[in-house]
Fold:
Amino acid sequence: MHLLDQLEARGLVAQFSDREGLKAALDAGPVVFYAGFDPTADSLHAGHLLPVMLMRWIQQAGHRPIVVLGGGTARVGDPTGKDKSRDLLSEDQIAHNLQAQQAQIAHFLDFEGEHAAVMVDNSAWLLPWGYIDFLREIGKHFSVNRMLTAEGTRQRLDRNQGLSFIEFNYHLLQSYDFLHLHQDMGCSLQIGGDDQWFHIVGGVDLIRRVTGDHAFGLTVPLLLTADGKKMGKTEGGAVFLDPDKTSPYDYFQYWLNVHDDDVAKLLKLYTPLPLDLVAELSATDGAGLREAKRVLAREATRLAHGDDEAADADFVSRVLFSKAALSADERHKVVRTLARSATFPRTTVRFPLSWCQAAVAAGLCSSKGEARRLVKQGGARLWQQKVTDADTPLTEPCVLWAGKKKAALVLGAS
Structure:
């Protein structure tokens, strides 16, 4: 199967500027391609990963990726899809965000070997330009009439929300990125989200006007989950790649709890598993579908956080609901993993204290009386063991259960 056919079969393609031309270019030899990421925040989230996964597949087919971190364009801010102007970031904020995003993207691509990825910052070629020189050499190739037809621009103007002049210039900057990379590094393909189509085609056209060369654009779809949410979003906010914002355990849980109708699609998009295995995993229901979700969670977490973090998250998600006794090392692993979670309930106490006191402190029971009744009814547990005495002493971090679904992590105050 040709690379483009594979990408389409995985659902990774929304639009081509020239499918047959790109197919011929890929067949003719290694293609240099790029995707850009503006460091407007200090972490990417799961919704940003489709272009990264697309880059991963194209690189593994023998082509060379360039990751462009927009240290220059972030000073302007892409107006695409925004109802109002972005807040302008300081140079220190941009530098911090660049460093954070660089580390996250490095998990997904190979930066060594024959087709090693390259990471660059577009401030290196954008900032040296003089304003008049840029207008004269680059601005002359752009039609204001055409720029006004861009969907994002039209929406802002139709809603009387306005568009600042600095935002209006963003299209020229991103288009010039493509021209610079084409001339300096032989880049002939830009990829990005489907909302970037106008900018990408602008770069393709600029290369043709300036050099006479033929370049290509390819976009990935903008995804909604089966329940109508943007990909990578939850009720609590974005699912970040930064482990300090979304712990590996919480990241694992996000994928483990996706809608049943999304499993096949997400296995294709967010894991490296072969398509025939994806079809086998997703052609099930009940326990088989739950296992398919676990495979999705494990593979997605492994790509973002590494083998060890994925294994720990998988282990903890399994043993929490198991009745098997845990060793001291296993209990320590559970505590260490859950302590980083922003979603798993927890409390901080001073040891020693009784199970009853800890259950109230953790919010599992509203009062000591309720906690004692729960113990008498057989619904209280310390780890996997049933608690028969409400005054059972706790001397170290642990997980308490009230019934089958309510649990909390108890940590010691430092």
